[in-house]
């Protein structure tokens, strides 16, 4: 991400190749500075073992290629695990859904960072399909939404609103039940429980 923000990724992945000998002094100078900064960004983020892999590298691309050859297989295994998290998980309504959905979207972003691009609409559908059975009505509504409206952020917003409404309605239902019990007691002549401070 830092390499992209600093416009250095081209030097790392080789799309911004070292200038030809016939190129101007300014072009050579700019490329060498970018390459040096990219190598610094890569090496400063590494711990002891991976750092030893790249200490003798002479370009940012060589650093990156050495790291890829060492960790690419592990990355593929990690992607497999994360794909399970995104596409085979059923969220639980026994706890708040927002942190669970955030964990799912983080897994999707990590997959993208590891090199397998996941479209936002695909992640939104993964969230919808992972909602618990008690959210069936919302699932149906979201499934009928305009596909261009679907994004992980939009789905999360709708889930939070739906969850709040359910909590509010369950509280209202509990209040109605309590009032109903008090009325039945009054009709039977039973004393109604008084709250503290009442006379």
Description:
The protein is mainly α. It has two domains: 1-71, no CATH class; 89-178. The protein has nine helices and no strands. Helix 3 (25-44) crosses helix 5 (60-87) and helix 7 packs parallel to helix 9 (152-188).
Distance between the termini: 67 Å
**Cα-based radius of gyration, to the nearest Å:** 28 Å
- Note the main sheet: none
Strand content: under 5%
Q: What are the defining features of this structure?
A:
about 200 residues, single chain, mainly alpha, 2 domains, elongated, about 70% helix
Topology:
Layout (H helix, E strand, L loop, with lengths): L1 H4 L3 H5 L11 H20 L3 H7 L5 H28 L9 H17 L6 H11 L5 H8 L8 H37 L11
Helix pairs in contact: 3-5, 5-6, 6-9, 7-9
Short description:
This protein has 199 residues and is mainly alpha-helical. It is built from nine helices and no strands.
